Prior knowledge:
The chain has helices at 7-22, 29-57, 61-84, 92-116, 127-146, 161-185, 212-246, 253-262, 264-275, 279-304, 318-335, 342-360. It is built from twelve helices and no strands.
Amino acid sequence: xxxxxxxxxxxxxxxxxxxxxxxxxxxxxxxxxxxxxxxxxxxxxxxxxxxxxxxxxxxxxxxxxxxxxxxxxxxxxxxxxxxxxxxxxxxxxxxxxxxxxxxxxxxxxxxxxxxxxxxxxxxxxxxxxxxxxxxxxxxxxxxxxxxxxxxxxxxxxxxxxxxxxxxxxxxxxxxxxxxxxxxxxxxxxxxxxxxxxxxxxxxxxxxxxxxxxxxxxxxxxxxxxxxxxxxxxxxxxxxxxxxxxxxxxxxxxxxxxxxxxxxxxxxxxxxxxxxxxxxxxxxxxxxxxxxxxxxxxxxxxxxxxxxxxxxxxxxxxxxxxxxxxxxxxxxxxxxxxxxxxxxxxxxxxxxxxxxxxxxxxx
Length: 362
């Protein structure tokens, strides 16, 4: 029997072995079930290792490590699917990135607020940092996912080559500026705050931080866990596609399901932070994940399309644009006061439920 000190080291290894044995193969019902269990175990292990790394490096670096790691692997998954089936993946990047934005703005923030406000508590967070992050997410999403539906240079919801390159460069510059602000110039804007609004310098007031060796080991296992999560999600995707088709749902819903799986580690980490009274850490995880998803995915796709002759439709439809505007407005109203109640949690979760329902029934 695995002890608490060992299970989160063993499960990523088992999940990675399962990925190596099942990648590119058709699975039966038992195989799908086993892979699903290992996928869930890899998610839990990723959260455990992410918390160890975050405790060592402190906020906001810990949130940044998890967000960037997940996004890099998510980009790799998108590019892999584009290369293997370019004719079927024209809208894959759009569906995945937009799902990530809505999951983070509505789902992760809503879940974090729900757990942070239990027992009639009114948690506080840093409005300056969270507001700047939200503004960056809104700008990146509008430029890369909304404007392609408005421009006229290319047919359909697409950018011209020049427009795509401009959007890619702008996304990298804006993301880089945010990271510099978060980690160097105004790091205190992204640290957890106490009930009186004072900054909490450390993420854990009682436990000593892990050693460098432990942190590096956990970082390695974190990356292995995330590779296993994304890879096993890809292995499960045929079964997900079959289930989606059997249920009569649109094919685009597959991207939503995969995005939910990929973002599970960040969701659980955000909820755990909220339960410990570190709502700012949850905000960092949610908004940082959305930002990294756009700021890294779009430039990677812009480079890939220079070498792969695959259509790339980034523009959102009217329903998705409406949901995005609603999510941004509600998020702004939540962030501006620097504190929240259970009502804001319900509103965010309601928007998330609407996104999932309309993704199933457009």
